[in-house]
Amino acid sequence: MGRSPCCDKVGLKKGPWTPEEDQKLLAYIEEHGRGSWRSLPAKAGLQRCGKSCRLRWTNYLRPDIKRGKFSLQEEQTIIQLHALLGNRWSAIATHLPKRTDNEIKNYWNTHLKKRLAKMGIDPITHKPKNDALLSTTDGQSKKAANLSHMAQWESARLEAEARLVRESKIRSHSLQHHHHFNPSAFTLESPTSTLSVSENAPPIITGLGVSPMIEFVGTTSGSSETVGIVKEEGEQEWKELGSSSNLADYKEGMGNSLSSFTSSLQDMTISIEGGWTPESLRPNNINVNNVGNIMEEGFTNLLLNDSVNRSLSDSGKESDENSGGSGDGSDYYQDNKNYWNNILNLVNSSPSDSPMF
DNA sequence: AAGTCCCGCAACCGCTTCTAA
DNA sequence: ATTAGAAGCGGTTGCGGGACT
Q1: Residue A354 CA, nucleotide B19 C1', distance (Å)
Q2: Quick one: which of A4, A37, A158, A351 could link to A357 by a disulfide (CB 3.0–4.6 Å)?
Q3: What are the backbone angles phi and psi of residue A235, rounded to the nearest 5°?
Q4: Distance between CA atoms of A17 and A29, rounded to whole angstroms?
Q5: Which residues lie in coiled coils (predicted)?
Q6: Are the C-beta atoms of A263 and A289 separated by less than 8 Å?
Q7: pLDDT of A114-168, one tens digit each?
Q8: CA of A238 vs C1' of B5, distance in Å?
Q9: How far apart are CA A338 and CA A319, in angstroms?
Q10: pLDDT digits (tens, 9 = 90+) for A21-42
């Protein structure tokens, strides 16, 4: 199977897109949908290869793209997910639905990577660099501070993992206990997961945490049509998704997110026989055959208990920014708040007040 | 004001994965 | 099961603009 020669064809335009080209592409997709990218350029009257059109559409012209500066929370999400998933930009992008993988990748390479490097943290391994430890002027105290920093960072990273597991678990749990919700529209198929749906409860599909908060909280009673109620992150009001098409869109988004997460789990190979270490929790050290059990037993409990404990012990600390809390005092919100604070403290610590500098 | 450097981002390249025949 | 085409993905490049000298 040879490579597609589409971009090698003579006469095809390369380089920056002109407004006219954008308009042609937009107009064509609005009228005909995406269809086959290969045949699209000719039909749309563009002297571009299909690949170029696809990229232009997915990275720039798509109407559901959020452009502009990344919020603090988005930054944090990227850092955490990168610690967990590595350079898997598309997987990371599924948790930032309005951002493209390309944009996230660029942002990581141009901003976040450098910031971590400044903090003395290896942006690849997310651990303090040896040279950062050795180059300090005040041997012992700096080294201790670095180790503390490392512990905090590792802790934050583990919490990110716990968070993903928790998301998966909550969603899975909800799917198993609720109905009025067509499971075929919300499949989660992976080698480690087979979902069943029971008969007697209303659907509550709750997406928590890293991804924008889209929560399916119920159905209107007595209606044969599935109606979801959603709240997106940053919004105060719950929205009712009365139309099946809107709901389907949300379901699709959630499904993508879930499948992405499960696929990321599939890549993990782990051995827990030697006990838990931070390294053993890294991707590629997780055996896919154990993932289901791990998630249901030790892994989730270990991390969630730890997270809750930490939240409780830290509950005296306050931060107004990105607390993610609604003020209802639930463990989740407290957990969420401390979780973000943890990252905030690391990311926002300027070189001048960092013990490393 | 002119030249140089640096940074951010859009786009490209080439490999991998998916899908349908 | 095999194959070829299409799409997806991540690494990299190069251009444009702002900062600096």
Answers
A1: 51
A2: A351
A3: -105, 145
A4: 16
A5: none
A6: no
A7: 887 777 777 666 666 655 444 444 455 555 655 655 565 566 666 666 666 665 5
A8: 50
A9: 9
A10: 888 888 888 888 877 888 888 8
Domains and CATH numbers, chain A: 6-61 (1.10.10.60)
| Secondary structure tally for chain A: helices H, strands E | 13, 4
Residue A59 CA to B16 C1' — how many Å? Answer: 20
Q: Residues 110-169, chain A: which have Cβ under 7 A from strand B?
A: 110-111, 114
Percent residues over pLDDT 70 in chain A: 31
DSSP state of A112: I
